[in-house]
UniProtKB/TrEMBL annotation, chains A, B:
Keyword Nucleotide-binding found: no
Nicotinate phosphoribosyltransferase N-terminal domain ranges (all copies): 23-146
Native source organism of the sequence: Thioclava litoralis
Protein name from the UniProt record: Nicotinate phosphoribosyltransferase
Coiled coil: none
HAMAP family associated with the record: NAPRTase
Lineage: Bacteria, Pseudomonadati, Pseudomonadota, Alphaproteobacteria, Rhodobacterales
Chain's gene name: pncB
InterPro entries in UniProt: N/Namide_PRibTrfase, NAPRTase_N, Nic_PRibTrfase, Nic_PRibTrfase-Fam, Nicotinate_pribotase-like_C
Length: 435, 435
């Protein structure tokens, strides 16, 4: 029996929209948005899409009109009543009313602001400029739209069974990865793969496969949830995440003196400290180098719940965090270490083996969970690539990121030098950025 | 949007019927049925299910009531008007009205006759006794029902994503097999996998994958069709097949003297000769040994279109056929050699390499196309196994099959000895029977 209504419905779209909900985004963006809404409502920030994989010419693969239609469709979205209710009423990290009424009132009327799209050297220059809390919500939808339009550019050329086998292979691969994690006692792992996913439906599949394969952590399993609010709501699982580099980057850009610059990353966490407790108090120390960050950190930060390691060589950095906690009289076994940089099964197994039992260890699995289509089509046209969307200036001043991997550094060169001096960055080891 | 009607429809079945059409069977069964309907309408034959894989205890895996419901459902079927029209009007091997009006009149009113089901030593003893052309149509549905109920016994224990990944793996495997055949120039290959398929839907998937992957031979591709009439009709492709061992086995059993026994296999083909020409004139020589069959064959048989090799070591047997044609003054390059015994990609590639260009070479790919679930579940519970349904007696006299592989021989031992003497069978090399 053909369901005529479904068929007609599927064919009535001029486009097949990629972003169909304002909460098809990472939970931490909303948390940060609320924080910025309160602390820095007047800061003007410019976000820009940056394709680190220069050989992938996005403007040649993706039709500009199609991209505009997708971006425009995302701009048409408003929070639905159900989504608003879920954000207001749901329990996040064991706490209700994580989102304050004043923020929700603003968010209920929010729509994504204007964008600026140019083409240069076969790449799209996509920028968003405006009040920080308004433009920052473009990051995830913009990335997801570009990533999925690139996937579509490839799969649109494939025939029916070829296509079915493509997804069969991808499913098999993810399932084998999940099975390869099953024997890790005490494993805790979440989906962090929204921004560079192959597609929305595929991320949803991966999350459900994780749920069945590893079990919900609420019932003793290893799967602790997803960063994606829409999937968390629909699949009735935890939405997870804390904060990101954009906070120290913008705070730092706004600092008037070197001394204020040096304190900016701690000022971010001081503001966060006022708003959040428990599992949301997670240090992200690498924006201007983890080593210096920990060395100069105020002692109250040692009381925070844990640390997230998002660049550099993860094992030595986790060891450094353990030494830091011990030096502050804290018990590392009570501390959470979240690994989230370009993980795949082998590294997860290695890190779990090294740190399980010594700290509370947790993994945020991103692109290689939700977009591992490597090797499936000719020229590896579906392999994930390194696309980011970053705050590049704040109130007209350029932002800088150093991170623990010089290949991830960004900002004007003269500013990078100044930051390296202020934050006392020594030798850093370059690591390939895959995703 | 949930299609309520489809959902309700799917749930209203007490059983999910495996056989839903009388033409969900092999084309050659219908051809033989018509031949028997004319030539031997009063012969009483007994068919019996034989599970050569003794370690698979079908009666422990499959509930007897469920099996009876499936068999009873198949008995309720009658040819639909569309099916009848297709059989009457469709072109088979370039010929219309392959099925005569008198046969179709009988078939339009046909239903599968009674069955006898017993349990012994953990196995089902399933037999069908009656007029040959009436009971012989049970073979394929009985096998397909048992095979699919065994599959269901295993997959019924699996969870949702586990199940999806099971089929993802199977799809990937078949697709890779199909891809591994693409570079064989001039390849001709058909689906012969109805009887021991994993399931009806799965066979249908495999056929469509072959069609897309290899291309329809009508349009220059390598895929020549399916033995399954229902799938051929629905997917608008060729239905293929010629004749099987049951004809010489029953003719032989009815022979009164050793001399008549010796001539029985040729009598079968003489009757067939009267009814069919062209691609349907395919010798199946192995019932009582290919070597003796060719040695003693009447010379008119050398004029037939080709030969089907269904047991023994295929390459030497094809070489023997080539020598035989040459000795009769025939040009082997104009002859068709159909390989159909337990094929998989490696053997297909090898045989194609050896015989392409020397003869017109064709492959009937069976169980390892439509039921290759080896290695996918614990204890290999979905691996195909060797289930057959054979004519075991005719007018009360036992049938015998020798074949070119002593492991496939069947019949009472004393009769096997007599047949070996009459047909002058020497040393035979035993080969494992996988499927």
């Amino acid at each position: 029996m053909v369901d005529i209504a479904t068929r007609v419905y599927n064919h009535k779209w001029k486009i097949d929209p990629i972003i169909r909900s304002l909460i098809d985004t990472d939970f931490y963006k909303l948390l940060m948005c609320q924080s910025i809404f309160r602390n820095s409502p007047d800061t003007v920030v410019r976000f820009s899409l940056i394709n680190r994989s220069k050989d992938i010419k996005l403007a040649e693969l993706i039709d500009e009109n199609v991209l505009r239609m997708q971006l425009d469709y995302a701009r048409s979205l408003k929070l639905s009543r159900g989504e608003s209710t879920w954000l207001r009423g749901n329990m996040f990290y064991g706490k209700r009313q994580m989102f304050r009424p004043d923020f929700m009132e603003w968010f209920d009327n929010y729509q994504l602001p204007e964008y600026d799209l140019q083409v240069k050297d076969g790449q799209y220059e996509l920028t968003f400029e405006g009040r920080w809390h308004e433009v920052m919500l473009w990051e995830i939808p913009a990335l997801a739209i570009l990533m999925e339009l690139r996937s579509r550019a490839i799969v649109n050329q494939m025939r029916r069974f070829e296509l079915q086998v493509l997804y069969a292979r991808a499913m098999t691969r993810i399932w084998e990865k999940i099975n390869a994690l099953k024997d890790l006692e005490g494993l805790k792992i979440a989906d962090f793969g929204t921004r560079r996913r192959h597609s929305h439906l595929w991320q949803d599949w991966c999350v459900q496969a994780m749920l069945e394969g590893l079990g919900d952590s609420a019932a003793g399993g290893a799967f602790t949830g997803t960063s994606n609010c829409l999937i968390a709501m629909r699949r009735d699982i935890e939405a997870v995440g804390t904060n990101a580099h954009e906070l120290p980057m913008v705070y730092a850009a706004l600092a008037d003196t070197d001394e204020a610059l040096k304190q900016a990353p701690y000022k971010v966490l001081a503001d966060w400290h006022e708003e959040h407790d428990g599992n949301l108090r997670i240090i992200l120390p690498d924006t201007y180098g983890t080593e210096g960050f920990l060395r100069d950190a105020p002692s109250w930060l040692a009381g925070w719940t844990g640390i997230r390691i998002d660049s550099g060589d993860p094992a030595p950095l986790a060891e450094a965090a353990i030494r830091w906690w011990e030096s502050k009289g804290e018990d590392p076994r009570k501390k959470l270490v979240i690994f989230s940089d370009g993980l795949d099964v082998e590294e997860i197994r290695k890190l779990h083996g090294q740190f399980h039992g010594r700290v509370k260890c947790s993994f945020g699995w991103g692109t290689l969970l939700t977009n591992d289509f490597r090797g499936f089509v000719p020229d590896d046209g579906l392999a994930p690539f390194s696309l980011v969307c970053k705050a590049i200036s704040a109130n007209g001043k350029p932002t800088v990121k150093l991170s623990d991997n010089p290949n991830k550094a960004m900002g004007p060169l003269s500013e990078i030098d100044r930051y390296r001096r202020v934050f006392g960055i020594g030798q850093q080891i370059a690591r390939d950025v895959i995703v």
